[in-house]
Design brief:
flat, mainly alpha
């Protein structure tokens, strides 16, 4: 395992441990979930109607383009 692979593995382990700890506090977890939900509505800001991005970062259009 390379140094970079190890660093990434440790980073993700630390993130997962932090989330597991936060989930123990039900009020804090509910607050985090509410915050995520409030931000979900912004996911399409700035996108044209029908604009869809895939996991690789490629864009395609499902409908007519503006302009």
């Amino acid at each position: 395992m390379s140094h970079e692979d190890y660093r990434r593995k440790r980073f993700l382990e630390d993130v997962n441990a932090s989330y597991a700890e936060q989930r123990k506090d039900l009020a804090a977890w509910a607050e985090l979930e509410a915050q995520r939900t409030s931000w979900d509505i912004t996911l399409g800001d700035g996108l044209e109607e029908g604009e869809v991005w895939d996991e690789r970062g490629d864009v395609r259009f499902t409908g007519p383009r503006k302009g």
